[in-house]
Each structure stands twice: as structure tokens, then as C-alpha cells.
Description:
heterodimer, A: 670 residues, mainly alpha, two-stranded antiparallel ribbon, 25 helices, globular, B: 484 residues
Amino acid sequence: MNNIVLLVILLLPLVASLISFLIGRVNERNRDIFNIIATGAELILITLFYKKVSVQAVDLFVPDIMGTGLYLKLDMFRYMFVWITAFIWFLTTIYSTQYILKYKHRNRYYSFFLLTLGSTIGIFISENLLNLFTFFEIMSFTSYFLVIHDEDKYSHDAGKTYIEMAIAGGLILLMGLFLLYDYTGALNISEISIVMVSLGNIKYLISALIIIGFGVKASIVPLHVWLPKAHPAAPAPASAVLSGILIKTGIFGILITVSIMMNGDIILSSIMFVLGFINMLMGGFLALFQRNIKRILAYSSMSQAGYILLGIGLIGLLKEYKEIAIYGVMMHIFNHAIFKVLLFLGVGIIYMILHEASINVVRGFGRHKVILKIVFLIGALSVMGIPGFNGFISKTILHEALSEAHHIYNNIWFTIAEIAFTIGSSFTVAYLLKIFVAVFIDDNEKYRGQYKEHIKLRAVFPMVILSCIIIYIGIKPYTIMSIMVKTVEAFGIEGHFETDFFSLTNYKPVMISVLLGLLIYYTVIKGKLLRITNGKKEYINPSLNWISLENDVYIPVVRTIFVISSKIFHFVDNLIINIIECIISGIKMLNDIEFENGETKTIKNSNRLNYKKFFLYNKAHKIKKNKTTNVEDSNLGNIVGLIRRNMNSIIYSVFIFAMILTIFLIVLVL
Amino acid sequence: MRGISILFPLFFPIITSLAFGTIKFKSKRARNIYLTSTIIINFLFVINVSMTNASIDFHLFKVNDFLDIYFKIDKIGILFSLLASCLWIFTTFYSIEYMSHERKEKRFFIFFILTLGITVGIAFSGNLFTLYIFYELLTLATFPLVIHAGSREALESGKKYLVYSFTGATFVLLGMILLFSISNNMTFIEYGVLTDLNSINQNLILVIYMILFLGFGVKAALVPFHSWLPSAMVAPTPVSSLLHAVAVVKSGIFAIIRITYFIFGSDVINKVQGDFYISFLVITTILLGSLLALHQENLKKRLAYSTVSQLGYILLGLVMINDNALTGGLLHLVNHAVIKIILFFCVGAIYFMTGKKTISEIKGIGKQMPITMGCFSIAAISLIGIPPTNGFVSKWYLAIGGLRADRVLFSVILLLSALLTAAYILPIVITAFFQGEKVAKEDHIEPPLRMLIPIILLTGIVIALGLFPNFVLNFIESITDSIV
């Protein structure tokens, strides 16, 4: 019975997508209601399933599908991912019903939105890596339609980068799976972890390939190129799930690779730890310069993914004390989904009304919109990690894990890491302050509280719910943490972790980073990036002129390889034809030498000999030719030409047939 | 004389095609019924032959051990003949509609049915000599189809096709003579006919194998003998789809399977390292096909180069000489046939409805023909090898086979080629769907049902074989178990 429910959870969105498409062709209103019911039903189903899953993991095996069978498993570790996915999808679907109204292709949007939900849940509950890969690829393709939904030049450009990188990443991941299957003979995640330990250095190659494959989705530097383009391109609810959930599929993959399959291998963990910092700092730094709010948020997602990655690194580094890092990682995955979706939905409202997300245009828009201002502020404060909001909880746990690692290893690198952590957090403070001040505090005579009627309850409701959750978790973190106790078991340890969040020791790093963030805001953003021309405030983005990984590295490299290999293969393509033409023209050149009267007898003889050959092949022309041409004046080129003209294809083929046979026989006889 | 039942699927189409030439049909309808019933009856004949469990064989006439027309049924022959005659049914329906726009329908259908008989003949050949005879007949029977248009370009391509094919045949004949001189036996037997290895010069075996491989490789579009295939795309679409993506090229592959596993045997090939030298050519084939496809503006030519590269996949599966790779190769033989026939059908449907042939012309065609292009997209995804389509399953087995043979490079090349495949096939989909003007529902110009239904059914097969490959997979594994 339980495993049937598991199958229903997977199939419900996929079937709903089809039904929604069919309903939508008849009546759009009914379709919207159906979609909300479908995602709601999914959420309720998963929520009710909690009781069963918390007692024992549920699994389901259907043989024969795709050759290896479909193996699904839902334990508490996966449950958290699945629940947050269904929850976010439910809210964004409600939100979409207003947001998408003004867009074309609504039917297509909802179909692919639901398909993406189904495949995302599929990723999280697959126990078999091949199934996981299948859902991963389906998700890449279905979410492509969300990215290019606007069908303008920008979104197609972004979509192209997105799909290219997704396919390339998918293939690298597949290579990793090939090797994995070849060396371990297993595809089920739990079995792999046992075999992996005994493999030699090849396991690093395998896991590197898999991490690169997932890393494209998780936007690890330097595989992040698609993210700042694709997330702003999509409609806001789609950007929200792209940033909130789809990044997590990549993170989920990395998490199971590093922490479960590789058992938190120390080398791999250190690499993830470093990569996490690079992501955190680079994402935060670049976010400072952006002017498109959605792009700031996209870079912010990249930076927050960095926090999670460094947490994954810490899980391995902390070894037996790893439960604290696991808590940090899982909490941050959960919290980031909530606050980032909230922020995207908030920006979406602005974009819905003005069709513009540039900070220079929408400046001052939210000054008189109280609800929007409040929910956005809640989201922003949460990302910054201010006490009382959920971001503070997960960042504090991660910070504590970092201090713990510092305590264990006690070397200079961890001191640097702690400083970097603070700087990363201060970037967060600065770029969010940039948005908030520009949009909600600055005054702009264009926007005086009009457009209020555009903001409908269906759009605000999801944001209010999200804000409530943010504050609830921020104040009472232990409720959710008690649920997480079981999650830790997936990593092979049992542990419980408690800390007093609301103490001065935990406030101190927050205060430092907020102060540092304010400093950055006033010196860099206010000081360098804000220009006042003709009394108008305008932000500039110098980073546009910096070296771009995509345009200056990837594209030229690929293009050069492409041009060179094309040249080579074009040559090979025409190789046979070229050789034959070479021989023919060579013969022609030889034969074009005219033989004149009075030459030596031998040449005359040979000339006649050839002429005899000509008669043999071309009897029809014999008499005519004899009458009109002089033996001494003709040349062999004419004859060869005549033969070629008069032989039809079949004789030609037989001729070649005979020639090759003769040549071979001669070679063999010799 | 139970063995005589083997001759039905073989000679029935040949006889009916000759009869087709003499009968004057009262109406088009009568002709269509005649055509479809011929193909379907023949399909039933093939099924009938395959259902008989006992191995059937039949000597048509025998002069001596060399000149011996001999037919035999085995599993791999059944696989190939079923594949061909099944796809022939789809193509018949499609071409009845499609060819109404072209001239000389009668000539087309005579040779079209004739080719079916010859293809089945290739599948059921029991020795190399019989295979060779039918192989030559295939060239001659398909030649009129290639030059169907009668234009200068078509005649040029036809000439190229003949020259290439006969060059290949020459190699085969030479190889056959040499082979017979050392083995005195050319019957197809599992694990090969060369039993007494020690007394034979191994270099000679290698040379013979290479000659035969190159000879049959011409039809399998092995680089550098591939360039007839893109040229032959001047033929009408049903010819390009069925013959130049399935029957003809796969006959080449099938013949290579026969010589590799049924004449020489996997052990011998391993011993003389025949696979080693061939694999260079095969790798070039894969990369060249997919890279040059990127340069083609004409849709059919792009698909033709894609065929070159995909055939490389299958050859790769064959020359790695292990069971996983061979399973992958045979599976891809089936899967690629289905995928490529859909792609060609869709391109043909576009040409049929709008007369457009190049990528730049088909902007926004997906909005006019959403069902056709939808099927095209699914087939395209399968061609790249993305799950849950059948293309992925065969790629999985090929790559695992490559790794089992300790050749990581092969798997890397498979994936590289998959990337290139995505690069040449997805722009077609994107151009078709996301460029050009929006069209009203009334302006939809889906092709007639007789063209559309085969496309939809085949697309269904692509997904069904992707989700439940075991049906075909088990059959293929039973083949590979007995020959590797």
C-alpha cells in the first residue's frame, strides 16, 4: 500500500500535466483551478505520508522499466527535499494564476511546469542512479521551456546557454555513471557506497565527473555561466522554482555523491569546501554590481549555493562530529528555498506591473506598497541572516560547524575561512540593501501608490505564507530541527545537535557582517556604482566590461576546436573523391602532351597502341573518328574524354570492378 | 520439404513486384490495396517463418561448395527480416500518399517491393555466397529508386552510388575467393568456420577480414566510403528513409555481423586483432558524421550525415567483440532504424506540404505542423540518447561494452558525438518551434493521415522501447549469448 502511494506521488504531476493541457484547451479558468488542486493534492499527500516515512523508509521496485527497473525510495533525508518541492510548487502555482495571465502560451507553461515538478520529485526519490539521471534529463528539458517562455531574443539566448550546458553536463554525468557502473556493477545508491570504498584512485575520477554533471545545475564556479542568464529570463514563478528548487537537484546529487556514496571522503570534501567559498564570494561579489533585480537574486542564489557546498565539505571534514554540518546543510537547503522563492515572487509583482526589472527604472516603486515592502523586507532580512528570521538559524549552524572544524584542525586556512565567511555574509547584506533601498525607500515621483489594484490576493497570499514560515522558523527553530533528527541517519550516524541560537556569541558574527555590509554598501555601491546625471540617480554596472567566462573563454575555445576539426573532417570527407580526381587529372596532364609528326617511332607506336584501345571501347565512333581526325594530331586526352563520355554508369562500375580485381590479383600473385 | 516455407517471404515480393509491372489497375484504390496487402502478407510470412522453432534451411541450387544458394533461418536473420518488413509496412502507407506528387509511381513501387524481397533474402542467406548475390541485387534494385527524379543531379548521384557499391562488391568478391581458398566453407556458423587456426597464416586472415569489412563497409557508410550516402539523398523521401537509413545501410552492417561472428568468429578476430585496425575507421566515421552534419543546410543531407555517424555507433558495437557492446550495437540497429525513419518521414512531410527543404526555410513550421514536429522532437531527443527514449538504452549498452573492453576512449567518443548530435539536431527543433510568426489554428497544415499515423505510431514505439526495452533486449541478448 505504502509503495503505491510513492508511485502516485511520482505520477500525479505527470498525469496532471496532461490533463491540465487538455482542460486548458477548453477552459483556462478551470485549468487554473485544476492545477491548484493537483499541486495541493500532491502537497497534502506528501504531508500525510510523513507519519509512514518517519517510522520506516518506503521503497518501491518496478522491474523491467528502462532495462534496470525503477527503484524508488523515500526516507527522511529525501522526504525533506520532496516536501519543500511540493510546497513551493503549490505556492508558485497559485501565484502563477495571476502572474501568467498576461503571457502567451499559458497552456504550454502549465504543462511544463507540472512536468518539471514530476521530474524533480523523481530525482529526489530515485534510489537507482540511472532513474535519477533519467529524471534529471527530463527536468533539464522541461525547464528549458520555462526559461524561454517569453520567446524574445534575450530568453532564447539564455535558453541556448542553458540547454547547451545542461546537455553537456548531463553527458559528463553520464560518463561518470558509465564508469561507476563498470567498476562497481551497482546502480543503487546504498549499494554503491559499500563498493566505492574499495576502489582505488578511479573513484576520484568517477566522483569528479558526477560532481561536474550535477555541478552545472548547482552552479559551481566555473559552471555557473547559464545561471545569471537563465534565471532572470524566465517568468517570475519559474525563476523562483529554478532558483529555489532546481539548484537543489544539483546540490542533492553532489550531497549523495560526496557524503553518501564517497562516505565523506576527505580529499573530495576539502575540494567542495574550497569550491563552496569560491561560489559564495564570487556570487556575492558579482551580485553587488548587477542592476537587474532578478539577476542580483540569481547571483545571490549562486552565493547561497556556496554556503551549502561548503557545508557539504564540512560534513566530510568534521568526520565523527559531522551531524552539526548535516544540520546546517539541510536547514540551509530548506531555508534558502523559502526565502529565495519569496524574493523572486516579490520582484515578480514589480515585473508583472512594469515589465521591467532594472533597478534604475523601478526605483522607488515599492515606497507606498506596504504589504509588498514588508514581505520583501522579511525575505531580505532572512537572507542576510538577521536573528529572528530563518536564514539566521542555518547560517549560525554552518558557522558553528566551521568553528568546530577550525577547532579540530586548528590551522591558518580555517582562520582565513572564517574571515571569508564573514565577508561573504557582508556581501549578502550589501546587495540586498541595494535592492531594498532603491526599490522601497528611494522616492520616485512616477510611482505614487498607483497600480495597487494590480496586486491580487492570489499573488500576495503565497508570499505571506512564506513570510510566516520564515519568522516561525526564525523564532522556533527546534520544531523543524526535531524533524531533522531522522534525516541524519541517512548519513550513517545517529546524532542530535543543540545549541542556544539566541545568545550573544551567535549574534556577534551577524553584527560584524552587517556592519561590514553597511560599509560596503556606502563605499562601493553608493560611492562607486551610483551616478547622478541630470538629477537622476542611476546605477552603473562596470562588471559588464570585465572578462566574461562565456564570451571570452568557452565560446572561443569551442569555436576554435570546431573550426579545426571541421577542416580536418572535410578533408577526410572528400578524400576518396580527391584522390581519384588527382589521379584523373594526372593522367590527363600526361596525355595532354601532343605528339607531333616526326617524333621517334616508339612514341608513334605507343600512340597507335592507345588508339587501338580506344577502338575497342568505342566502336560506334570508329569510322566517324577515323575520317575526321588525323592519327598524328589527336591526343590521348581526347580519347580518355570520349571514353568517359560514352560509358554509362553500369559499364563504368563494371570497369572499376574489373580494374580493382586485376590490381589485387596482380599484387597477390607477386 | 518444410524448408520451402523459407522461400515465401523471399520470393513473394519479387513475384508480386513483377506482376505489379504487368497488371493494369482500374483505380488507384485497387493498386493501393494490392500494394499494402502484398507488404502485410509478406510480413505474416516472415512471422510464420520466425515462429517455427526448429532451424529451417534450404538449398535452392548447389553447383559446388562455393556456388551454393543456401538459405537458413537463425535468430539474427529473424531480427533483421522482422525489422525490415515491419518498417516496410509503415513506409508503404507513407509512400502511397507521398509518391502521388512524384511521377512514375509504377516504376517506384515495382522496385520498392522488389527491394523488400531482396532484403529478406539478405537476412535469410545461409552462406556468404548467397549473401553476396543478394547484396549485389540490392544495389541494382535500389539504383532506379535513387535516380527516380531523373534530373541531372539524380543521375550523377546514381552513378556515384553504383560506383561506390560495385567497388565495395569487388572487395567482397576478392575476400570471398581468398576466404574460400583457406576455409573451403562459407556457411554461416556460430563462432565461425575457421576451426584449424594454427595451420593458417594469421596475417592472411587479417587481410581477408579487412578486405571483407571494407567491402561491406561501403554500404554501411564507413569512412572513407561514405560519400554516396549524402549524395543519394536526391531520392524521394521514402527511399531515403527506408532504404538509406534502414534497409541498404543496415544490410551492410548485417553482412559485417555475419562475417565477423559467423565466418571468422569472435575468437579469431580477437586473436588477429582485426578489431584494432578497424576501430580507427569507425571512430573517424562517428566523429566525421556528426561534425559534418553541422555544416549541412539541407535537412535531408543533415540527416544523412547523422546516419553516417549513427552507423558508426553500431559498427563500434560490433568491433569491440564483447557481449555488452554487441547487444548495444544490435539494439542500436533496431532503435536507429525507428528513430531515423521518423526523422525522415517528418522532413518528407514538411517537403510534401510546403516544399521546404532547408533549415532556414522552416522557421516556425512547428507552429503550423505541431504534431509532426512534436514527433520530430521526440525522435531528435532519442537520437541524442537522452532517457527515457530508446536511443539511451542502446547508448548505455554500447558505452558499458566499451568500458568492459577497457576502451574508455570509445565511451568518451560516444558522448562527444552525442553532444554534436544535440548541436545539429536541436537547432532544427528550435528553429521550427520558436521562430517565425504565430499561426492561427485554422492554418495548421498537418500532413494527410496516411503520412501522419505512421509517424505517430513510430514515435510511440520510440518511447515504448525506451521505457520497456526488455522485449527486444532479451531477444538480442539471446543472440549475443550464442555468438560471443
